[in-house]
Amino acid sequence: MAKTTDTSDSTANDSIFDQNALLIFGSLLILYLITFNGQFTSIDELNLYSMAESLAQTGNITVPQVSFASYHNPVGSHEIGFPLLAVPLYWLSIRSQIINNIYFVMLLNPLLVAGTSAFIYLIARRLEYSATGSAIAAFAYGLGSLGWPYAVAFYREPLVGFLWTVGVYGIILGHAVEKKWLERSGILLILLSPFVKVNILFTIPFLLFIAQKGQLTWKKRTYIILGGGFTGVFIAFQILFFLRTGNQWNYLGIFTNTDLIQVLTRIYGQLFSPIKGLIFYMPVIILVIPGLYTLSRKHRNVAIGIALSFLSLLVVLSFYGAWYGGQSWGPRLLVPIIPILMIPLASLWDAVHKRSLRILIIVVLLISIVMQMPVVTSNWWIAYAPFYDLSSTPEQSVGLSFRYLALSPPWVLLQNWEVNNLNLLWLQTDRSGLWHIDLRRGFI
């Protein structure tokens, strides 16, 4: 009798699209809609919405709607990419006359983050990892990372992550099926990302390493291409920065006014500080290092590309005064690279065979998921209150000290989360603790 083989978790993946990706997209989108609150928590979100509104109504990006902010919380200009993508949703909202305009436009990020998670799964499958490992990588981003809180917000960073993830998948898929148009489409998506956020432009050359599944041969032509790529990046950055601000980027001033100690402090701040350290907001990040090691054994250039992409963004942001991303949840400016960082988790899952190690991976992932739940179901701003009681600029002072580890916002929010403090669009509680459920009025 012939032996049958269960191919449901096989690493082989010859189809262009996997139906499991659609299941991941749908399940995450439903969850994001359930935890949707339809509220802006920063002036940046309001400014981006106002840009989309102005584009839809007048065809320009002037935003008199936020002129009041100059009195207490000035907001800078933003790139046009994200508001432009939100315009169709605004048009649909004013024509439906049923759903609140803001709620409708804010549906953009739930779609983007759910879609990004699905493409993480597809990338991992294309790299010949199992369906289980690929799903773990996808849900690590969609549920266990900052991806979930930012799915229900209205910031630009999820769109950058989406463009990068889909772009990398397009290039890898194009290589696999020998379709040049897919490769070029992937490259185009990656090149469009600076129109969403210009300061991520320096990461783009390293993203192309990720798409190199084979071993890269370091010849003279390779160095010429890389040199030309970086030159093009600097020129493009200068042009985009001028179009956004009307000023030229002062390269010399940036590097001379920021010493090495400041850069190292800000790198530490983004990764390990109690107030903004990525490791406290999503513990699943600790699995990336062993994941990169296991990934490098099979796809060396992919692992190098992921590591260099992350490091390049981390270092560039460390020259930025507001490296912490303003008054937002966690290290917001690192959100674009998080989807790419989750890819090695598929490799790690497939590489470990001991049951105890796999249980450890699941436990770390579950801890990360649990830590996101209070953020998306309540008012997370209260978690920063203890630090702001100590200093008006805690990100630059007390928030960097491990003496105040107990005040780390994820831990504070987890400790103080209560069912009676729910803040969802369709389910809220009043001061007496009574629940108010209204599926219809929440959307109008």
Q: What are the key terms here?
A:
two-stranded antiparallel ribbon, globular, single chain, disordered N terminus, about 450 residues, mainly alpha
Number of helices: 21
How many extended strands? 2
Beta-strand residue percentage: under 5%
Give the SSE order as H and E letters: HHHHHHHHHHHHHHHHHHHHHEE
- Can you tell me the residue ranges where pLDDT is under 50 for at least 5 consecutive residues? 1-8, 214-218
> What characteristic shape results from the CA principal axes?
globular
Question: Numbering strands along the chain, what is their spatial order in the largest sheet?
Answer: 1-2
What is the terminal-to-terminal distance?
63 Å
Rounded radius of gyration (Å): 22 Å
- Derived structural class: mainly alpha
Describe the structure.
A hairpin with a 5-residue loop joins strand 1 (427-429) and strand 2. Helix 2 (43-58) crosses helix 3, helix 6 packs across helix 18 and helix 15 packs antiparallel against helix 16 (300-317). The chain contains 21 helices and 2 strands. Helix content is 57%, strand content 1%. The chain has 444 residues and is mainly α. The model is unreliable at 1-8 and 214-218 (pLDDT under 50). The chain has helices at 19-34, 43-58, 81-96, 101-105, 108-126, 131-142, 147-151, 157-177, 180-192, 204-210, 220-245, 251-256, 260-271, 278-281, 288-296, 300-317, 338-342, 344-351, 355-377, 385-390, 409-416, and strands at residues 427-429, 435-437. The protein has a two-stranded antiparallel ribbon. It starts with 18 loop residues before the first helix and ends in a 7-residue tail after the last strand. The chain is globular and about 55 Å long.
